[in-house]
Amino acid sequence: MTSSPVPTGVPDEAGNGTGSVPIGDSTLVGATSSVGTDTAASVESFRRRLAAVRARIDAAARRAGRDPAAIRLLPVSKTVPEERLRAAYAAGATQMGENKVQEARRKAGSLADLGIAWVLIGHVQTNKARDAAALAAELQSLDSLRLAQALDRRLQAAGRSLNVYVQVNSSGETSKFGLEPAEVPDFLARLQAYPALRVQGLMTLAAHTTDQARVRECFRLVRQLRDDAAQAGTVGPGLLSMGMSGDLETAVEEGSTCVRVGQAIFGARPTPPQTGTGGVTAR
Question: Cα–Cα distance between 274 and 279 in angstroms, integer?
Answer without folding.
Answer: 5
